[in-house]
Design brief:
Elements (H helix, E strand, L loop, with lengths): L3 H10 L3 H4 L3 E10 L5 E7 L5 E6 L7 E5 L7 E2 L15 E5 L5 E8 L16 E9 L7 E6 L5 E7 L5 E6 L4 E6 L7 E7 L3 E7 L5 E6 L1 E2 L4 E2 L5 E5 L7 E4 L24 E3 L5 E6 L3 E7 L7 E7 L3 E10 L2 E12 L4 E12 L6 E4 L9 E5 L2 E4 L8 E3 L5 E9 L4 E11 L2
Parallel strand pairs: 28-31
Antiparallel strand pairs: 1-32, 2-3, 3-4, 4-5, 6-7, 7-8, 8-9, 10-11, 11-12, 12-13, 14-15, 15-18, 16-17, 18-19, 20-21, 21-22, 22-23, 24-25, 25-26, 26-27, 28-29, 30-31, 31-32
Length: 423
């Protein structure tokens, strides 16, 4: 393996504004109008080349899913089944596809905000269940089942292990719960909790049975906070056994209930394995975005500063495919007195092949025309969701999805973009 210290050196160079941007090129951008926005979107490509996007909106009864069979130029909604048949979800989603083309759509139900909010008790809001939908015919038909119906169910994830088995986690303030399917989602085996407390911040799989779960202090949609939990749990045997290591770096965790405007926002802290089984972890320390890599499953880490500016970086996302590391994040500067915001969306690419990693970054996207909110008669930049995904597409380009919640233009849905990696 190349020394990760080479990556430290190279990424340090790319912090400089003159070198940092305009290397990933935007190929095209498609706005997809819908009845609702698609918060925390997820994006996958089916083995047949079709693209699928999901994301949540609180008013919906059934999960949202969209499909493109022309590399993202046009999109159509997918019927995932009826509410009565178990297609029941309006909050956090995850979406994966296995090598055989089986789609797994994992959905959470959260308390629905009524149209008339006058006497609504906001403190009553909570997660209500976790549902799993499976399609083996490219989204034409779906089977659904509930994996949990516990109060405060929160943040589901699903991944496909190297043997083709499907692994699902979530939390409810009383632990990170775990299910496994070895029959392509027909049945789900209940397994011991991965952690007795903490939040299910991310789940990934790697080669030779590797799995990793990021467990963070906050759980149950921000209603439970365990400051002594800040770990990565790792399995080397397809989830049969787990060991924990402390998450590297320094984070100033602030419970959601105590967080003020402009303070650091944490939610998902992403992990990824490369083809050699080395574990990557992306996190923010305020104005510094850090990337760590471990060749010994979290026992030791090499850490680099991937990006820094005078703005806070948060909501990172990380994905590794074919020795290509893709990352996204959001940066923001907030002025509490004027209630003004500067908000940027970032995309990075690092080739892990060859003698030295080759970082490239897209010029930060200012999505004020797609993401804005209203306060006292004025429109401001708004996050509109949390993390946003990036994947390597079959044609070698990068696909990126951001939610669209344009109150000023009265437009909702999502935006799909393709980026080109410069040689």
């Amino acid at each position: 393996m190349k020394s990760f210290h080479q990556l430290v050196f190279v990424t340090a160079l790319f912090i400089l504004p003159s070198l940092c941007f305009a290397q990933l090129q935007l190929i095209d951008s498609v706005a997809v109008m819908a009845d609702y926005n698609t918060r925390e979107p997820m994006l996958v490509q089916h083995p047949n080349g079709d693209l699928y996007v999901t994301g949540y909106a609180n008013p919906t009864k059934t999960p949202q899913l969209y499909k493109s069979n022309d590399n993202g130029q046009s999109w159509k909604p997918v019927d995932v089944g009826s509410f009565e048949a178990g297609a029941d979800g309006n909050s956090d989603m995850d979406l994966v596809v296995d090598a055989q083309g089986t789609l797994y759509l994992m959905a959470m139900r959260f308390t629905t905000v009524p149209e008339d909010e006058t006497n609504f008790d906001w403190s009553s809001m909570k997660g209500e269940h976790i549902a799993m939908g499976v399609s083996k015919d490219e989204g034409a038909t779906w089977t659904w089942q509930y994996l949990s119906k516990n109060n405060y169910d929160d943040r589901p994830w699903v991944t496909i292990a190297s043997d083709g088995s499907a692994h699902a986690i979530w939390n409810d303030g009383k632990g990170v719960h775990y299910r496994v399917s070895r029959d392509q989602g027909t049945s789900w085996e209940e397994r011991p909790d991965i952690s007795p407390k903490g939040g299910s911040s991310h789940l990934v799989s790697g080669p030779k049975g590797l799995l990793a779960v990021r467990v963070s202090p906050e759980s149950a949609s921000g209603t439970v906070f365990n400051e002594d939990i800040d770990h990565i749990f790792i399995s080397k045997d397809f989830g049969n056994g787990w060991t924990s290591v402390p998450a590297p770096g320094n984070r100033n965790w602030i419970p959601t209930a105590q967080r003020q405007i402009g303070q650091m926002q944490y939610w998902v802290e992403p992990l990824a394995f490369d083809g050699r089984g080395h574990l990557y972890y992306l996190w923010s320390e305020g104005k510094s975005l850090r990337l760590g890599v471990s060749a010994d499953l979290g026992q030791t880490w090499d850490i680099s500063e991937l990006y820094t500016s005078d703005m806070q970086s948060f909501f990172p996302y990380l994905n590794i495919q074919d020795d290509q590391l893709l990352c996204t994040w959001v940066s923001e500067k907030a002025d509490q007195e004027t209630m003004s915001y500067t908000l940027h969306h970032h995309v990075g690419h690092i080739s892990l092949a060859g003698d030295q990693p080759k970082p490239q970054f897209l010029k930060p996207m200012n999505l004020i025309n797609e993401l804005n909110t209203q306060y006292q008669g004025r429109y401001y930049a708004a996050n509109g969701g949390e993390y946003f995904p990036a994947i390597l597409l079959a044609d070698g380009s990068i696909g990126v999805v951001t939610t669209m919640n344009d109150l000023k233009g009265k437009k909702q849905g999502f935006a799909f973009r393709r980026l080109k990696v410069e040689d």
